[in-house]
Amino acid sequence: MTSPQDKRRALTPEALAMMDTIARTGSFAAAAREMGRVPSALTYSVRQLEDTLDVLLFDRSSRQAVLTSAGQELLVEGRRLLQELDAVANRVRRIATGWESELTLAVDDALARRAVFDLMEAFYAERLEGGGPPPTRLKLRVEVLAGTWEALLSGQADIAIGVPTRTPSPAIQTAALGPLEFAFCVAPHHPLAEAPEPLTAAQIAEHRIITVADSARQLQPMTIGVLPGQDVLTLPSLATKVEGLLRGLGCGSVPAPMVSRHIEAGRLVRKSTYEGLRAGTMHYAWRDNGQAPGKALAWWLARLRNGTTCKALLEQHEGLLL
């Protein structure tokens, strides 16, 4: 009885290519001519493959090379495997030129998702020598507050985009994205909508505040804007926080560009508070191992040095809130 190991050894690229050539040319004789072999040797190779797999691959009652159902399945799967082998070989060759096999991006929830997807689209549109796209697989993580730092520091991400403070580690390099302004908002039917401004801490504390849960697991989670004794509704993302604000479930601060269209349309009311104008500089950060970054990381760092790109990441919230 043929062992599984023997069957795997029989399914070589050469055997799969032989099946493809026979099916494509329509006969053993034509396939033998194309492959530079004598027909008897090709027939023997097919019989060996059939014996090892314990299946009949070709219908012997026909003068032509007619595949059985098992042979057809092997042909389809064999062609797929040959394509995958070619793809792997191409990826290996490209990665050998300095492209990382995978690059993980940790993006803070406060950034514009549309601009992030624009960058990913531009990355995949790059064409290397030979015409193919970069071989690096991208992985996107959306994090909140300290969770963005944690993904980078723990090695779960290669670059963190949208961290609110400068580096907490000498092994991390940072650069500024730009300023991000926050707006304290309530729904038009919320009790604070008609309250005189600026709102005092005592006024705000009387009402439920909506917060977004910090995604950090190891670092100390950050809590922003919650006053002592205040009722809190914690939601998983800024998109759900905006929905909570629109429904009047509470009050809270969100990136101003994210809600500008709701404020302009009257669906939210922006209120000044005792804190004055809230704004902070957002940064991007990456690990520095003392060596030049891989080509994929270098591509992203080059794009993030562009002021227009940074502005889009901070402000281009229209249309896509995930």
Automatic annotation (TrEMBL):
This protein's UniProt keywords: DNA-binding, Transcription, Transcription regulation
GO molecular function: DNA-binding transcription factor activity; transcription cis-regulatory region binding
Pfam families (alphabetical): HTH_1 (PF00126), LysR_substrate (PF03466)
InterPro entries referenced in this protein's UniProt entry, alphabetically: LysR_HTH_N, LysR_subst-bd, WH-like_DNA-bd_sf, WH_DNA-bd_sf
Start and end residues of each HTH lysR-type domain: 11-68
Signal peptide feature range: none
Keyword Isomerase (UniProt): no
PROSITE patterns registered for this protein in UniProt: HTH_LYSR
Superkingdom to which the source organism belongs: Bacteria
Coiled coil: none
Keyword Transcription assigned: yes
PANTHER family assigned: HTH-TYPE TRANSCRIPTIONAL REGULATOR (PTHR30126), LYSR FAMILY TRANSCRIPTIONAL REGULATOR (PTHR30126:SF4)
Family named by the database record: Belongs to the LysR transcriptional regulatory family.
The protein, known as: LysR family transcriptional regulator
Native source species: Pelomonas aquatica
